[in-house]
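Why ABC transmembrane type-1 domain-containing protein? Reviewers of the renewal asked for a concrete example.
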Amino acid sequence: MRWLYRLLLVLLFGFLPLPILIVAVSSFTSTGYFTVPLASLSWRWYLEFFTDAQWLGLLAVSAGIALLVAFISTSAALLAALVLDRTRIRGSGVIESLIMLPLVFPNAALGVAFLGLLGLLGVSGSYLGIVLAHCIITLPFAYRPILNSLRKLDPALGEASMSLGARPAQVLRTVTLPMLKPGLITAFLFCFIVSFDEATITVFLVAPDVNTLPVRILTQIQESASPVIAAIATSLIVFTLALVLLLERTVGLEMFAAPERDH
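Here is what the prediction returned.
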């Protein structure tokens, strides 16, 4: 029976990347429509993407939003982890559950909820509204690795620094933050990836003059089947995989494991 399980695993993991491979192959077609197999190879659609001011503008907008969201979410997750892990407050478990709550709900449901909430705040259909929504959905991806890193620190290091005359702010700046670097890098990059690739929630929050690259790709697929979409999608997949591989090679992905206190 073991060979059957292995065969099922091979078929499963071989089937999962198949749609991505089809999109990647079709992006090199020389015709104006999707064809697999290819009649001939061409970089035509990649050149169109990287020379089109509209696509590049949306790429810059999405990257800017993702950078801002990653910075805000990482900073907020750091503060939350420090407070919940280093101080004893009532309801800390409830607060942690609220932080991780966006992972529970479907993205479509979150999109409808954000649409109503941001409408009440008067920022619906604006880049500010998109940033606020992305900060909430990326917060769990920042909180877990930072908390995991924090719980691997030896509290005696901070206590020793304070016994030598260092103030809490100095301990945070010179001891805690440098040792939290792997968790902070992991949190920042994953928040960037999640925000940059988000389309399901964002589609509820855009406006005629407010758009992002993933949402534009989604709407363009509904309007036409130009192979430039396949070229853009392939470029984004390669970019995301490169970030994940960089993260794995530098600090590792074990930061997302269940946090355990070593000391």
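The chain has a mean pLDDT of 82. This is the kind of structural detail the renewal will allow us to pursue systematically.
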